[in-house]
Design goal:
The protein is mainly alpha-helical and about 80 residues long. The protein has three helices and no strands.
Length: about 80
């Protein structure tokens, strides 16, 4: 038994799943040398910023192995 599709207000919605285009898109243009250089420079800048922030942030993240006597608080000395 064949079932008919429910009518829809716009015919293109009913046929959208069956539609296949035979038109091929135009080929992509190749990037120019200046565009490639700009992308490369942007990538290097981002990587350098990440490495720089890591280098500058490492001293703040490191923990001292043995604090010197001058850095201990009075509470730790029993005063």
């Amino acid at each position: 038994m064949l079932r008919r599709r429910e009518p829809v207000p716009f015919a293109f919605l009913a046929e959208a799943d069956r539609f296949r285009s035979n038109v091929t898109p135009p080929p992509r243009q190749r990037a120019s040398a200046s565009e490639i250089a700009g992308r490369w420079l942007m990538g290097v800048t981002v990587v350098a910023g990440l490495v720089g922030s890591l280098v500058l942030g490492m001293p703040a993240l490191s923990q001292d192995q043995a604090p010197s006597q001058n850095q201990q608080s009075q509470a730790s000395q029993g005063h």
